[in-house]
Design goal:
Elements (H helix, E strand, L loop, with lengths): L30 H15 L1 H12 L5 H28 L30 H19 L9 H24 L4 H5 L7 H19 L19 H20 L7 H28 L6 H15 L10 H16 L2 H5 L7 H19 L2 H4 L16 H29 L10 H6 L1 H6 L28 H11 L19
Helix pairs in contact: 1-4, 1-8, 2-3, 2-4, 2-8, 3-4, 3-5, 4-7, 5-7, 5-15, 7-13, 7-15, 8-9, 8-10, 9-10, 9-11, 10-11, 10-13, 11-13, 13-15
Length: 494
């Protein structure tokens, strides 16, 4: 690491940025820029429950809570990983072309120096980018829906963010990353977030194997969403959060941010309509709500790498092309015989690829220049090699994600206490009942609800009130149909 050089004003361009007891670290940054990036980070966080609600609604009822659980688990695991070494491995200063370093281990010296996005300080950029890592983890674990062991999933996700997400994010967004040096354009995460999570989810689904279902002996099972309401709510959260996801990726509060927001909204709307009309003609003349939600997400995914680079009217093309092609891409899981139940690869892997390729065609230098960013543009600027850069980035991202995820899964599955999959009996019972002990809906499951209780100790030898009441009930049955305690389906006290 090169020696720090103090600026004439007494500030530093690395380390903490200066001594907060001697100088005001805030004066180097525009407060409007900091407020917008901070608000954008909060908006991106809303995508975490959005993914959970979407996946939960698409799942079967007996597994619905496990998908909500997975999204919150991912938020917790990635938050710690990002603090521990994730941020340093992606954005560490003076890093290699492949990966960051441990300069900022446990966020050491992450404070007031200009970040990779020089308009905001390190600590704010760390917060904002941490939300992106969190969403990527939430999306990826969808490939394991309805049959993954939850404990081992925690370990796997920590490792996956470290060896899969961090390198790809460093290639793309670190100033020294090899894809950044090459000239590949990725405004807000078409590669690190979407293609990466899509390929990772496909590998997770492949190595877990298809879901057990006695009614489906051959092929990949296909189920209707158990709650379209949850699907709609999840989509609304995602659509709303995406304004921060794309709009905040400028790192400033310039006109380019609002331009990106308009493109984001337009691509989502046209994607929803495109998928809706394709479904109408493909599936029995029905205006499907779930299809409209999937179309909106495909449009949002496709515009992600392009929102701050392409003219706003091309957002219509991004939405229509992604909504149409991703609709047909759902059928890939049947051709490949891989049970990607949440269609993560079709929406995010394929959608991200479409968006990245189209960025190479339609990126315009004058759009990026709205906040002073200089690019050569794509085909509309007669910069034809840009498409090659985009294809190189796509191939590197997809191959690294799928290949390294597969290696990681096979290593972990050979460790006895980290087996990836639930037993067949647990899967048939349902993840919620077998592993979590709680349910999304309790109408017929109250008696099986797990309620944590303190372990008995030598200082509390007296039986619980519930046990006493249960014994009284067996000796003196209550009158008038009243009950005390809970009973099993056989009528015997628990």
């Amino acid at each position: 690491m090169s020696e720090e050089t103090p600026l004439p004003s007494g500030y530093y361009d690395s380390g903490t940025g200066g001594n907060s007891l001697e100088v005001d670290l805030n004066v180097r940054f525009d407060k409007a820029d900091m407020v917008w990036v901070a608000v954008s980070g909060c908006l991106v966080f809303l995508m975490v429950p959005g993914v959970g609600l979407l996946y939960s609604g698409l799942a079967r009822k007996k597994h619905a809570l496990s998908l909500l659980w997975a999204s919150l688990m991912a938020a917790g695991v990635v938050s710690f990983q990002w603090f521990f070494w994730g941020y340093s491995l992606v954005f560490g200063r003076d890093s290699s072309n492949f990966l960051g370093n441990m300069t900022n281990f446990c966020l050491m010296d992450v404070l007031g120096a200009p970040s990779t996005a020089s308009t905001v300080p390190d600590i704010l950029f760390c917060f904002f980018q941490g939300m992106f890592a969190m969403v990527t983890g939430c999306l990826m674990v969808g490939g394991a829906c309805e049959r993954a062991a939850l404990g081992p999933m925690i370990v796997f996700l920590f490792c996956w963010i470290t060896v899969v997400y961090c390198p790809i994010a460093a290639w793309t967004w670190n100033a020294n990353g090899w894809l950044a040096d090459l000239g590949a354009l990725d405004f807000a995460g078409g590669g690190p977030v979407h293609m990466n999570s899509g390929a990772g989810a496909l590998a997770y689904a492949l190595w877990l194997g298809k879901r057990h279902d006695p009614a489906v002996a051959k092929g990949v099972p296909k189920y209707k969403p158990h709650s379209v309401t949850s699907v709609v709510l999840g989509t609304v959260f995602l659509w709303f959060g995406w304004f921060g996801f794309n709009g905040g990726s400028t790192g400033n509060a310039s006109m380019r941010s609002w331009y990106a927001c308009v493109s984001t909204n337009l691509a989502a709307g046209t994607g929803a309509l495109a998928w809706l009309f394709v479904d109408y003609f493909r599936f029995g003349r029905k205006w499907t709500t779930t299809g409209m939600c999937c179309g909106a997400i495909s449009g949002l995914v496709a515009i992600t790498p392009a929102a701050g680079y392409t003219p706003v009217y091309f957002a219509v093309a991004f939405g229509i092309v992604a909504g149409t092609l991703c609709n047909f891409a759902v059928e890939l899981k049947f051709l490949m015989k891989i049970d990607d139940g949440m269609d993560v690869f079709a929406l995010h892997g394929v959608g991200g690829f479409i968006g990245s390729v189209m960025t190479g065609l339609f990126a315009a230098d004058y759009v990026a220049a709205l906040d002073g960013t200089e690019i050569d543009g794509g085909w509309i600027n007669q910069h034809y090699v840009q498409l090659g850069y985009q294809l190189a980035a796509c191939c590197a991202t997809l191959l690294w994600s799928f290949g390294v995820t597969s290696i990681l899964l096979n290593i972990q599955d050979r460790i006895p206490f980290l087996k990836l999959r639930l037993s067949e009996d647990q899967e048939i019972i349902g993840t919620d009942a077998a592993v979590i002990g709680e349910f999304t809906y309790n109408e017929d499951q109250q008696d099986n609800m797990f309620i944590p209780q303190p372990e008995p100790t030598p200082l509390s030898p007296i039986k619980s009130i519930r046990s006493v009441l249960g014994n009284n009930k067996s000796q003196n049955p209550p009158a008038n149909g009243e009950t005390l305690g809970s009973e099993t389906s056989s009528g015997k006290p628990e």
